[in-house]
Amino acid sequence: MTTELNMMIDHVSLSVADMGRAKGFYTAIFATLGMELVADVTAQQSGSVAYAGFGIGRKGQLWIGEDGQQTPSTHICFRAATRQAVRDFHAAGLANGGTDNGAPGIREIYHPEYYAAFITDPEGHNIEAVCFEPEDGQ
Fold it and tell me: Which domain holds residue 39?
């Protein structure tokens, strides 16, 4: 991996109105990217609101907090290992309450190898998966 693709941000948090719906959505889309629910914190445990962390291993990279619908919504992009994972991410998003915000495909405006898909989650956030690798077998 080149230096330009190393991530410097440790984690990001989003506010959601419906924790159950959001956890179901993110569990499904992140499974396609090799991520899973790694922490589930109740409002009693946090002393404020319920939180859920999604990541790899023990490390939460995206946290959602049940603190009401976030306004304005935000855009977050996650790296996918393959173009097929991008397609799977998009399909899982559609099957779990998200809406299409950009079908899987090359976005040459960003980079000649920028293969991405965009889903608007049930809370209005624009969630993207991107892969810079060629199609499998090419």
Answer: 10-131
CA distance 25 to 73: 16
Residue 29, domain member (yes or no): yes
Count of beta carbons in the 10 Å neighbourhood of residue 20: 11
The 3-state DSSP class for residue 56 equals: strand
Phi, psi of 124 (to 5 degrees): 100, 0
Q: Would residue 90 count as lying in a domain?
A: yes
- pLDDT at 138 exceeding the cut of 70: no
Specify if 2 maps to a domain: no
User: pLDDT for 26-46, tens place per residue?
Assistant: 999 999 999 999 999 999 999
Side chain identity at 79, as an amino acid letter?
A: R
Beta bridge partners of 62: 12, 54
Domain total for the chain? 1
Q: What does the pLDDT look like over 77-87, one tens digit per residue?
A: 999 999 999 99
